[in-house]
């Protein structure tokens, strides 16, 4: 049973990682928020996205998922914030299995977040502005 719980948590972290990389890479520079200081700040708000990212994508993402994306986007005001989040989530996701990348890639647009370019697990976080 413990292994199953770890796997579910791992899938969640992987899904959240891809989604946050998309959001973080698209956030505008500037702002007054405190910024990103921990991985938990970017992963926790995306927990509601997990069922969607594990599913078949037939239903729209839940509102709480889109609210999480908006929340994370508001934290990543500076290039260092976005790069920190990208690295944290990319490293977490690369250790995990079960992620449906196509759903993660489409999630920002389904939540109304404009992403000007495609991001994958091969993203070079040093080039995120």
TrEMBL record:
| Keyword vocabulary terms for this entry | Lipid-binding, Signal, Transport
SMART domains from the UniProt entry:
AAI
Query: What's a single GO MF annotation on this record?
Result: lipid binding
Cited PROSITE patterns:
PLANT_LTP
**Pfam family for this entry, one:** Tryp_alpha_amyl
Q: Where is the Bifunctional inhibitor/plant lipid transfer protein/seed storage helical domain?
A: 39-125
Q: Which positions carry the signal peptide feature in this UniProt record?
A: 1-33
Q: Which InterPro entries match?
A: Bifun_inhib/LTP/seed_sf, Bifunc_inhib/LTP/seed_store, Plant_nsLTP
Q: Which GO BP terms sit in this record?
A: lipid transport
- State the superkingdom: Eukaryota
Q: What does this protein do?
A: Plant non-specific lipid-transfer proteins transfer phospholipids as well as galactolipids across membranes. May play a role in wax or cutin deposition in the cell walls of expanding epidermal cells and certain secretory tissues.
- What family classification does the UniProt entry report for this protein? Belongs to the plant LTP family.
PANTHER family linked to this entry: NON-SPECIFIC LIPID-TRANSFER PROTEIN 2-RELATED
Protein's recorded name: Non-specific lipid-transfer protein
Which organism is the protein's source? Answer: Cuscuta australis
Q: What is the lineage of its organism?
A: Eukaryota, Viridiplantae, Streptophyta, Embryophyta, Tracheophyta
